[in-house]
User: Fold this.
Amino acid sequence: MFKSAGNKWVYLYLLVSLLAAFFSPSFSLAETGDIRPLFFEGKAVNGEARLDQGRFYLPLTFFSEYLHTAAAWDEETGKIQLQAGAHPLIMQEGAAEISWGGEKRRLAAAPRQMRGGLWLPVEVANFLGVREATIGERLSLSWEKNYLLSIENTDYQGRPAFLFQTARPFTYKAFLLEEPARLVIDFQGVETYPLLAGVKLAIPPPVTGIRSSKFDESTLRVVFDLLRLAGYRIIEPAEDPTKLQVAFNSLLTAAGYLPAGEKGGPLVYVETSHPVAARSNFLPDPDRLVVDISDATLVGETMTIAGGDWVEQVRVSQFDPYTVRLVLYLKDARDIKDTRNHLVAAVRD
Assistant:
């Protein structure tokens, strides 16, 4: 009798322990979820999906690595935030209710923790424009459309630039238009990402505004309104065909000559909106020092500046779309090394 009663208590203890583990916050998908191969845009990803009670879950890292979404998780409070465009998605670990751009919604399943990591139901990816399909044992995800996912402020060699991120590779055309001055970029086969609406960007010169709209059935047009026509460069990262960077020239707004006797003189100087690089070359007959300032646009017309000392005059012009040229006409022939010691071309931004 005693032995039988003891066994009952042992069985009861084991049952209580299992129930406690099941309902414990630390209980995770590791014990119940099936690991499934995860594919995105037809390629295996660095990670896997989990299937639990008929619902798929994705690791939090998938959202930042593949969906270009800023993801944050506070392990102490359980708060989760994803930022896609201008729309924050705020969730709570273990809770199905979420805030999506300030609007309350409810998920079919709650975010869950597993072995120190966080897993979100695939429904969250659906909110971001991702569709799902099961192919055999694997979960296959893809973008619903080739979206323009983001436009970000960046810089290129110290100059203002903008970085475009699309969902898939694309083709484009870029060109300048006058009256009013603007740079147009037509993205072929790209769609407007609804979550991009409301994103605020810094607007450095020569840009005065940015807008986008559907130009025709297959073209998304992005327009940079400009203070004046300015040169630009388009950089295509070889490692990522879903990105495009647009960098604008620095604006050369002023130029002048300081004679000997004035602070810093004799000095030829220019003022630019952003840092620039320059190279110089001496040419004879007539003697002149040519200074080419790269990735710069001259504001206004060609200038001729009176010189002094060894410089007769300085001519400033737009040599090509990417280069402002300064020509310093020298008064007398001297050794070029000696001339350069006395005549300095300076750039001030």
Q: What stands out?
A: The chain has five helices and 30 strands. The first strand starts at residue 34 and ends at 40. The chain has three domains: 2-143, 147-248, 251-348. Residues 147-248 form a domain with the Immunoglobulin-like fold (CATH 2.60.40.3500).
